[in-house]
Amino acid sequence: MIDLASLDNAQITPSSDLRLLVALDALLQTGSVTEAAKRLQLSPSAMSRTLHRIRHTLGDPILARAGRGMVVTPKGVELRERVHVLVREAQVLLSAGDEEDVLSVGRNFALIVDDGYAGVLAPHLASPGRAQAFHFLSEGQGDGKALSEGTADLKIGRIYSSSPELHVENLAYSRFVGVAALGHDFLHDSVDVERFAHASHIDILRNDGVASTVEAALAEHDLRRAVVVTTPQYTSALSMIGRTDLVAVVPEILVGSGSLMAGLGSFELPVPIAPLAIRMAWHPRSDSDPAHTWLRSRIRDVLKSGIGPSARCPEPPQQQGRHGQRQPEEAGAGPARGVVYEGG
Question: Where is the HTH lysR-type domain (predicted)?
């Protein structure tokens, strides 16, 4: 437990308002009065008055003008992590109780999600009247360091490796399917491997250093795709397909998102593709946090309860090799035949 005295010379007494610490945490995390006000659902003027009280209490500006913006002072940088941890501990203590109690406590969650997963998760997490707010960060905005530093609560998606201090949990496996615009022949006819290879493809190039699993599967038949467009994201690929004859290969879990699949349909691939491993990582300091425990449980339910039949697979399925041998899947491997591909 962190003692209040750890805030160095901060003149905090038992009668001080705990809300000042919550406001201080928001100011130090955002470096902005306006953004802190949004996070706490206050007006900018109310947050400015709170900052004035904090400055008087700590004897430090906390935020200082720098051009048109503001920067955190050295004292603020020094206090940032300790204040954040202290506020999180207070939230755990004050929110301990049943699920109804937990959900009645306002909380802002930051989730680092792989491409497309925000559209899958958001409808199942956010609801009118719920006290929680969810901030989805892209892979470029956060990593394992963000989890360790407390600036993000969870990472969901492909996780090849992580710091030993993080907990990583296998959530589900999603197979790959083909996607095309409604009216495309592939949505109505049987698609053989040659027709599939000769179609006009969008190739999704991920920054994971792993060769395309689709190319590896087609190489078994001495074929290559006719790639006419490349993009680094599944969501951008799906947005390009409408009103064209292009096709793409995406994780089936994304097909369950109506917003992503408007005007599109899916079809079975004529070649076996190793499934996508979906994982969740978090820092162990959140293990006993009731609100964080609820969030992890809710995400498990969403990803295992019917968004595509393959998402319910507790273990990766085996696949057929070139000569018919069964190939066991191994989590953590690359996209070779018969192993789990953790890209996407």
Answer: 17-73
